[in-house]
Amino acid sequence: MRILAIETSCDETGISLVEIEEDKRGEPKIKVLQELVSSQIKIHAPFGGVVPSLAKREHQKNLPILLEKILYTESDVKSKKSTSFISNSVIQSIDLIAVTVGPGLEPALWTGIEFAKEIAKEWEKPLVGVNHLHGHMYSFLLSPAAKKISTKDIFPAIMLLVSGGHTTLALMKNLHEYKKLGETLDDAVGESFDKVARLLDLPYPGGPQIEKLATEGNPEAIAFPSPMLQKQNFQFSYSGLKTAVLYYVRGMNGGKDPWSIERKNKKNLSRKNLADIAASFQRAAFLPLVKKTMRAVKEYQARTIMIGGGVAANKELGRMLKSEIKKQKTKVSVITPPIAYCMDNATMIALAAYMRRQKKKKYPLRAKGTLDI
Ligand code: KG4
Ligand code: ZN
Question: Crossing angle of helices 52-74/83-93, nearest 10°?
Fold first, then answer.
């Protein structure tokens, strides 16, 4: 099955052409034929976060360009002059079009949906709506580790989905069945990285910046709270941690809010100090993720932990998890997708469309910002 997938839920425009088949043992065989992601980070960075109207404008501009590039590159008759002829052969080979319908920014989601509807009508192809979170959930299939083993040896698995909008723990019984165990009660962990980065005067997106700065700092330097750590449930909370960092930075700044102080006056916040804040915050943020993931592993006797979403790109999270596995002497393997597939992309949307194609519950072709897993 050849799937053309479209992703526009936030600030990345993605289009992928993916071929997925099942082998004799029922294992999915994935061939990424073409994939493109156009990031809008530079456009949103001056605003310290994603501006929905700008995201919409950029998606509108990028989608036709990416599609043409994908069709052209995929064609094996590049020497032919006529682009329309080239595109036609590729278009004919497409079986299904998939588009993210939520969660995300609704103006951004609508752009992808309208675009997908237009091409589906013009090419007379079936079109399905996809849950972005299912994309992150299935992105583990794109890791070299998952390709080597039978998916039957992976389950039951605990899925830790950590992104700018979500912090969710789920039990995956097999490739098609899952159960949500818990989630954040307020901010998402990625969101807290972005907010703390702003406090520290680091550019958007904050996650990679904090990770880099934290390598120079001492994670034990400041005792930030790790909310929900002791609670015997699978819930998370990040707004308190962000506030604790704010109070700390304020304290260091003579009681003034960091953003009310001119940069040149931030005398009390040395590079070492900022690095200690970043490292201590990062550790406090990851501790509940690690502890609760391990609790879920024990409770459900999971064989694998899968991490997905933008925060999964953070190497320290993987290190902390592996060190806890060693400490607890638990037999569980960790699968993290390559960094490009932790971030938003359309290839994972094609996978989710394929994996969930037989499900009774179909998503309407309508943007839903708050769509749940
Ligand atoms: O999955 P994603 O690309 O978009 C959403 O669906 O939200 O995740 C983006 C989030 C941002 O909050 C970003 O700061 C965070 O993932 N992130 C990281 C890292 N790289 C991206 N957080 C911590 N460490 C990183 N290395
Ligand atoms: Zn995402």
Answer: 90
Residues with CB under 5 A from ligand 2 (ion): 163, 344
pLDDT tens digits, residue range 104-121?
999 999 999 999 999 999
The Cα–Cα gap between 110 and 100 comes to: 9
CA 292 to mean position of chain CA atoms = 19
DSSP symbol at 203:
P
pLDDT greater than 60 at residue 262: no
Looking at per-residue pLDDT, the higher value among 185 and 262 belongs to 185
Name 169's bridge partners: 160, 182
What are 81-98's pLDDT values in tens digits? 555 556 688 999 999 999
Asked whether 192 lines ligand 1 (CB < 6 A), one says no
What tokens were used for 331?
């037999």
* Closest by CA position to 133, among listed 15, 7, 238, 305: 7
| Site of tokens 């990028």 | 62
For 346, residues 6+ apart whose C-beta sits below 8 A from its C-beta are: 5, 6, 7, 14, 15, 16, 35, 36, 37
CA 368 to CA 101: how far, in whole Å?
6
Q: What is the rounded distance in angstroms from the CA atom of residue 180 to the CA atom of residue 368? A: 19
- Residue 197 Cβ inside 6 Å of ligand 1? The answer reads no
Ligand (nearest to CA of 191): 1
